[in-house]
Each structure stands twice: as C-alpha cells, then as structure tokens.
Design goal:
The protein is an alpha/beta fold. The protein has nine helices and 27 strands. The longest helix is centred in the C-terminal third of the chain and has 20 residues.
C-alpha cells in the first residue's frame, strides 16, 4: 500500500525535512505532498534586510521548485486545521488525506493579551511584513523633518527586534532621514537570558547606531499613535513593530494533539501524542530535558534531517533516532555590522568568545549562504551574498 506523507510549512524545518524525506522515502512505497501558503522558502533570519532594502527579496526567497524534486506534489494553500481522527489536513476549500504528517507550520506573533497590540503593531513573520515595515518607515520619514523626526519603535529586544532596529537605523543613515529609533524591552536587559558579554556587545553596537534602548518597563497598552508603559510616560510613534514573542499557529487549534500555547509537544524523536503525526521547528515544543531547544532557525534546520529520517523509519518499522540540540553560537547583525558569540563549526570552536568587525560579518553571511547552498547550490547562494 502506498503511504501518503504530508509536510506542512516551507520554513527552515519544512524545507529541510522535504529534502531529507525525498531521499529516505526512496526505500518505501510512499507519495510525498508539501503544503504551504507560500510557493517559496523565506530565509527568515535575513528578512529584516528587506526593511532597509526591498531589493533583497529575490535573494532571500527560494522557489519551492528549486528545493523539491518533480516527484513531490506541492500544494499552495493555507492550512486551516488538522483532523487527526480522520487523518486529513483542512485547507481553504479542500482536504488532503495523510497516513503520516509532519507539522512544520512555524509560529505566529504572541500579543500576550496586551490591549491594542494586535490591532496597531506591525510584525516581522514574513516577507510581506518586512516590505510593509519598509513602506511605513519610508512614508513616515517623508512626512517628517529635523525638528519633528519620525518615531519608529521596535517592541521586544530579542534577535528579531535588535536586527529590525539595526536595519531602520541603517535606512535612516543611508538616506539621511529624520528618524528616531527606539528599542523597547519589558525585562531589565536586551537579549534576555543571553550571556552578559553578548548583551553588552550588542548594546554598545545599538548605541553606536543611535538606537535609544528602553528596558525594565513592560508595555501595557497600544493605541493608534502611542504605546503605554507600566511605569513610564507614553511613547508616541509613527511606526510600531512588535517582535516580543511567539505562539503556535491557529491551524493547530483543536487538532487533538498535546500542546503548549498551540505549539505541539513532542518527544526528542519528534513524535507527538499521535504516533502518525510528527512536529518540528517553531510549531513544536521538543522534549530536551532541562535545556529545551529555542525556536530559532538554527534549531529548526538541525532538527529537520532527523525528523525526515524518522518519518521514513516509522513507515519501515525501524527504531527512531533521537535529537539533541547543539548550540552553534549566536550571530546577530546591527545594520551592516555583526556580532558573533560562542560560534562553533563542527568540532572547532572559535577561540574568541565574543567578537565583531569583519570576521563576525563574514560568519553571519556564510551561515545564511550555507543554508541556501544546502537547499539549492553554492552558485545560487553566492549570488545572494551581498544581500545577506
């Protein structure tokens, strides 16, 4: 009997798993279907580049036809839900049956019940989001003056928020635009939970880029022209971007799987509470003991190969592999500059713990290029080099 294997999502986890599945499923009688609401893979950790320059979009998007083989059926559609009892994926207007399902839908922005946040804040979860931010920043700058600069506020000082603030600052400097850039964080330090050496290095680069950092005061409300804080005075804005957290996709509501905030819980072999459903990437909370894997691109593409292999192993009745997240370090860009921290390449760890300047910038570009090359080819990756 031909097994129907379905993969949901074209992010790092989905795209990586597709290629592994195409190899592994050659040993069994199976049809592979790939479903995503976009017909391209977005190199999401470089999406902030499009805030400054929309022209990079062709370099940071990869058509699915360059990733999947002709034997994989691709369906461009929005996943509305998953019915595990009936073993079907519900799309906008049709259903797709499966025998085995790999959920790699990614995440959506979490608003934490803050009044007005969802209605008034921009987000950075897609290429369209980045282009929208660019347009609104450019429009605000065109209406501003030196005496009355545009106020661009980035909420959330994790990687996305920091890199977005850096791109807006670079946009301002390249165009000599009258823009004030603010980075707002509820906790007492940027990059919460990270090493203090990295936090300090990033803070210095942001301050050098003339980004005003506001910490230790959570946002309590957002309206159409200002955000309000628990203690401080309201901050008016012309453009407000919220990058403060993630939650699972609405499509996983009521799917019958164990979850945490719509992120499906699974074992270290990516099996969920349903043996025929696997979950990976931001869609999943993977059991890693006391050190859970972060919802990052690095973790997703590490996990993709194991998850793809385990789907095939399940069909064959073989024991499954387990996965342990291996932190390869942190690379963060602030405009044209970059910072590297605890970076390793296989068994080799860079001896300098935190560094910047050209070596850090090169490493950040190389990591993104290596991912593109893995999905396509090195010539394709090198054409994107200047945009990364």
């Amino acid at each position: 009997m031909t097994e129907k294997v379905v993969v949901l999502g074209a992010g790092y986890a989905g795209a990586g798993a597709i290629q592994k599945l195409e190899t592994e499923l050659q040993r069994v009688d199976a049809d592979l279907t790939w479903i995503s609401d976009n017909d391209y893979h977005l190199v999401l950790h470089e999406a902030h580049r499009a805030i400054r320059d929309p022209g990079v979009q062709d370099d940071i998007t990869i058509p699915v036809g360059q990733i999947a083989s002709p034997g994989t059926e691709f369906v461009k559609a929005t996943v509305e839900g998953v019915d595990t009892a009936e073993q079907v994926v519900e799309l906008d207007g049709r259903t797709v049956e499966y025998d085995y399902l790999l959920v790699a839908l990614g995440s959506q922005t979490a608003y934490y019940g803050i009044p007005g946040m969802e209605e008034h804040a921009l987000t950075l979860k897609s290429l369209d989001d980045a282009l929208d931010i660019h347009e609104q920043v450019a429009e605000a700058a065109s209406q501003a003056s030196r005496n009355d600069p545009a106020q661009v506020v980035i909420g959330g000082a994790g990687l996305s928020g920091i890199q977005s603030a850096g791109e807006v600052a670079r946009f301002r400097d390249e165009r000599r635009a009258p823009i004030d850039v603010y980075l707002v964080e509820a906790l007492d330090e940027i990059m919460p939970g990270q090493d203090s050496e990295l936090q300090g290095a990033v803070r210095k680069r942001l301050e050098d880029a003339d980004v005003e950092i506001m910490t230790d005061d959570p946002i309590t409300e957002a309206n159409e022209d200002a955000i309000h804080f628990d203690e401080g005075d309201p901050l008016e804005y012309d453009v407000f971007v919220w990058t403060g957290g993630i939650t699972g996709r609405d499509a996983m509501d009521d799917c019958g799987l164990d979850d945490e905030h719509n992120r499906v819980t699974c074992e270290s072999d990516f099996r969920t509470s349903d043996d025929r459903v696997f979950a990976i990437g931001d869609s999943a909370v993977v059991d890693q003991g006391d050190n859970p894997a972060p919802p990052t691109a690095q973790a997703a593409w590490q996990a993709a190969e194991v998850a793809g292999e385990n789907v095939a192993r399940t069909i064959e009745g073989r024991p499954l592999e387990t996965w342990t997240y291996d932190d390869k370090g942190t690379l963060v860009s602030i405009g044209e500059k970059a910072i590297a921290h605890d970076v390793s390449a296989g068994p080799v760890t860079v001896p300098i713990r935190t560094f910047n300047s050209y070596p850090a910038k090169f490493l950040k570009k190389f990591v993104a290029a290596r991912w593109i090359a893995g999905l396509t080819s090195w010539p394709r990756a090198l054409t994107a080099w200047d945009s990364l």
